[in-house]
Amino acid sequence: MDMASHPSWAKTPTAQQDASWDALARDAAEANAFYAPDMLGAAIQHLPGGQEVQLIEARDGAMLIGLLPVATQSRHGRLPIGCVGNWMHAHCFFGAPMLRRGQEAAAWRSFLAQLDAAPWAGGFLHMEGLDAAGANAAAIEAVCAEQRRGWREIHRYERAMLRSELSADAYWESNVRSKKRKELRRLQKRLAEMGAVETRLLHDPADLPAWCENFLTLEASGWKGQEGTALRCKPEEAAFFRAACAAACDAGRLHMLRIDLDGRAIAMLANFRHGNGAFSFKIAIDEALGRFSPGVLIEIANLHAVQDDPTIGWMDSCAAPDHPMIDSLWAERRTIVQYRIALRGTGMARLQRAAAFAAANGVETLASYLKGQR
Asked: Dihedral of CA 211/217/218/219: which sign?
């Protein structure tokens, strides 16, 4: 069982590592485009200064059966308790580790055994961004029960997702109010009066560099640029976006679309695919045309693109809970959870980890009790 660390592994991966990672992604029990080789590799290659990430590999002989990126954390939420958590890039919205189908429990036994033995893994394991109904959640609960290892679900929320056998038109009519549909048709008509409106999917890889620059420019032109949160505001994040799009495009996992007005992008959407699913990554719009709701219009185009593609079974919105726009368009929901998992070890490490796990649980229980007394 191997443990690889950054940044050296990410900058110079061997051909064998590339091949084993690709094979794992192709046979993954749970889709996660953010931990697929293209996105995770790009994220690691463009880490902000000072960040360190460990890649825990679970193996069955020579075969890679699991990959878990982790990083140490000096605090656990508001608590001054150190721990180790699954590492998620600033623009990563799902944290399920890669598990080989049929080897889910074995992979998690290996992850936990390696963390138990790692002197740098203090406190406990904090896992966030998991699907409550996914393969990782099931394996974590099964292995913790098997090993009589403490674990606790500490947070959950629901976010919009698209999973339906309906056609795009049938879905639209079934899940969006008639008044809203009428208003959006009116906006589409008004927008068309301003010039030639065209919706396009990216098909030619040669167009990708220009599309990436169009996206970065469009996103930075709005409130994200003003607040400094647009990808272009940080060179390493813009570089990550370009690299992730290029790698995903090469692997056939990039799903990018745009709406143009007289040849100029007014709305763009970047999605990343993995397995039969997809993850909606980022949206960018021309806020000067906000009166036409370009964000909603491109989501309508996205609905048609997804529902008309038989190879995409579902799409995770990756949106915040109770998102007013996407929640009104997509009817399905995905439950996202966080877990706190006890780590073991020997000697003082075992005592320190047990104390940290008990302290975090105790503070949380007390806070819940006090909140209930109000």
From this structure: positive
The matching CATH number, chosen from 3.40.30, 3.30.70, 1.10.10, 3.40.630, for 164-312 is 3.40.630
Structure tokens at 97: 């580790």
**Is residue 7 pLDDT above 70, yes or no?**
no
Nearest to 134 by CA among 272, 62, 29, 57: 29
Q: Is 272 helix (H, G, I), strand (E, B) or coil?
A: strand
Are 301 and 168 in contact, with CB atoms under 8 Å apart? no
Residue 367: partners with Cβ closer than 8 Å, 6 or more residues away: none
pLDDT tens digits, residue range 198-233?
A: 999 999 999 999 999 999 999 999 999 999 999 999
pTM score over 0.85:
yes
DSSP conformation letters of 135-187: HHHHHHHHHHHHHT--EEEEEEEEEEEE--SS-HHHHHHHHS-HHHHHHHHHH
Alpha helices in 27-103 (DSSP H): 37-45
Bridge partners, 57 (sequence order) = 67
Where are the domains positioned within the chain? Answer: 3-158+335-373, 164-312
Instruction: Select from 2.30.31, 3.10.450, 3.40.630, 2.50.20 the CATH code of 3-158+335-373.
Output: 3.40.630
Rounded to 10 degrees, the C-alpha dihedral 39/45/48/53 comes to: 80
Domains 3-158+335-373 and 164-312 share a fold: yes
Burial class (CB in 10 A: 0-12, 13-18, 19+), 77: middle
Return the H-helix or E-strand segment holding 211: helix 208-220
Q: Find all residues with CB under 8 Å of 177, minimum gap 6, and list them.
A: none
Cβ atoms 246, 208 nearer than 8 A? yes
Contact 25, 274 (CB under 8 A): yes
